[in-house]
Design a protein that fits this description.
heterodimer, A: 10 helices, B: 6-stranded mixed beta sheet, 21% strand
């Protein structure tokens, strides 16, 4: 009896939500899904499509590179301010003077603010402001990555051996000179490998931001997915693999040069 | 303003961080320009702390401290940092970045006088390789000019750190155990070079040493530290063997290291078999 009442009450709700599980097994949709998936085995490779993919992949790399370059412009000065390794007032007392300490904390909070907003959210905001296109993607990457790079650079500098730069500071060098001659030789390869890894992340990030209209390969992928063109999606995924592999090779090469 | 480079009056210094225990107590010393002083005493007596206090790299706790006629800790950060360019502190194991080339590491002595642009340029094209070569040659290291620092042995690295000292324009040379990784012949050469350099520029040389015989042979004035206090501060001809014995009294040889003569005996036995 209770079950009957329950069914009577629930049925209108099921109808209202248009929940039709049997459509899952509808021949037509099964066929479409099967075609979409089996197309993955046959990557699209006509010349016109490949040219478009190459152009968009280039745009994606360009978005990632521009974004990262802008991020570096913000992150490097922030690192120099934040890292306690280069403090001159610290020498001899172990304590940093009040004004530099407050400045450091402010910049640290700014970096937290920048990276606490996900790049996708920045991209959504900027797409509203600058309309669809790569500008939004570049700015989104620049802001988030400035926050991440600034924080991690400072931590890399603080975790490597600090005696070389300490001695230079104790003998009267300037902060930046001590950085160049004492801290960078120790930390350079780690800094470079992290930067190249972030570049790789920026490429992935710019693909995702393409889905919200920030241009590049991601936007094309979104369109192809909506058209159930499995072959096209497959080709683009292969291109991603090549891009990431290329980033890996660049990183390896640079590390060997600096090692 | 008096003529002394350094005036220390009843100076006490605490360790930075940790227990903040007293590292030096009631130190009263004067150092004149052109003076050459050896700092001796058992390990942990405070020799390194005294050198870094003189280098304005360690703030004294109480007492009066004057360097070049002014108290550096009354100056602004910038003023004190400018003073640091007038002295040179050479630590015992010079921390040189392993991947740096020797020429770059040695030329780093000039950093206080270079603009940032010059410093940057010198990383790619060494600004004055001849000067670096001359400085290294005085320590028998001329052939290592373009080697990487991590290719050097411990003793070579130590002399590389001292070659940096020759390129600085400091008027007070504060050297912490420059001989700890050197053999006797190189020790002689190194001390002679340091003293000649100090004489030529009429600089103060304060050198902490474990080798008491070398200290007595080379330095006219001996300052001995024990437990953070000045045990004696005398011209070398007034230092007696009894005073030296007293200074190192109660210092046991490090554990687990056999006496040198014992070791020689054992090796000899091995050689016979």
């Amino acid at each position: 009896m209770a079950i009957a009442v329950g069914v009577v009450l629930l049925w209108p709700l099921v109808v209202a939500t248009e929940f039709y599980p049997w459509t899952l097994f509808d021949m037509q949709s099964l066929q479409a899904a099967w075609r979409f998936l089996s197309d993955f085995l046959k990557p699209a490779h006509d010349a016109e499509f490949l040219a478009m993919v190459a152009r968009e992949a280039w745009k994606t790399v360009a978005i990632a590179t521009c974004g990262l370059t802008l991020a570096l412009l913000g992150a490097i000065p922030a690192t120099l301010v934040v890292t306690e390794r280069l403090s001159i007032s610290r020498i001899g007392t172990g304590r940093i003077a009040a004004f530099p300490r407050i400045l450091r904390q402010l910049v640290r909070w700014l970096l937290v603010l920048l990276r606490s907003v996900p790049e996708l959210v920045w991209a959504l905001l900027f797409v509203r402001i600058f309309s669809l296109g790569p500008t939004a993607g570049v700015l989104a990457i620049a802001l988030t990555y400035a926050g991440m790079l600034g924080k991690v650079y400072a931590e890399i500098l603080e975790s490597t051996d600090h005696r070389a730069s300490d001695v230079l500071l104790q003998n009267g060098s300037g902060r930046l000179a001590a950085l160049l001659y004492g801290a960078l030789p120790e930390a350079a390869s780690e800094l470079v490998s992290y930067t190249v890894y972030r570049w790789e992340c920026a490429i992935r990030g710019s693909v995702i931001m393409g889905f919200v209209g920030a241009g590049g390969l991601g936007q094309r992928m979104d369109e192809s997915t909506k058209m159930l063109a499995g072959g096209e999606v497959s080709t683009m995924l292969i291109v991603f693999v090549f891009l990431v592999a290329a980033a890996d090779m660049v990183s390896k090469y640079l590390r060997r040069r600096l090692g | 303003m008096s003529s002394a480079w350094y005036e220390l009056q009843g100076l006490s210094v605490r360790h930075i961080g940790g227990s903040r225990g007293l590292a030096l107590q009631d130190i009263t010393l004067n150092f004149e320009p052109g003076e050459q002083v050896a700092l001796i005493g058992p390990s942990g007596a405070g020799k390194t702390t005294l050198l870094s206090t003189l280098a304005c790299a360690h703030r004294p706790d109480s007492g009066a401290f004057k360097a070049f006629g002014t108290d550096p800790w009354q100056l602004t950060d910038a003023g004190r940092h400018a003073m640091r360019a007038r002295l040179f502190l050479a630590p015992q194991t010079p921390p040189l970045p392993p991947r740096q080339r020797v020429v770059t590491a040695v030329l780093a002595a000039r950093l206080p006088h270079w603009s940032l642009g010059q410093a940057l340029l010198s990383l790619f094209k060494p600004a004055d390789p001849e000067a670096a070569f001359r400085a290294l040659s005085r320590f028998n290291l001329g052939d290592k000019l373009y080697s990487r620092v991590d290719r050097l042995s411990g003793g070579e690295r130590q002399r590389c750190g001292l070659a940096r000292l020759l390129l600085s324009s400091a008027q007070a040379l504060l050297v912490d155990e420059p001989l700890s990784a050197l053999d006797p012949a190189l020790s002689q050469l190194t001390l002679n070079t340091l003293q000649q350099e100090a004489r030529e520029r009429n600089a103060l040389l304060v050198c902490s040493l474990h080798q008491v015989d070398l200290a007595l042979a080379h330095f006219p004035r001996i300052v001995a530290l024990k437990n953070g206090r000045v045990a004696f501060d005398l011209p070398r001809d007034q230092v007696t063997q009894a005073m030296i014995d007293e200074l190192y009294l109660g210092e046991l040889p490090p554990a687990n290291s056999p006496q040198p003569d014992e070791m020689a005996a054992k090796l000899a036995v091995g050689a016979c078999l």
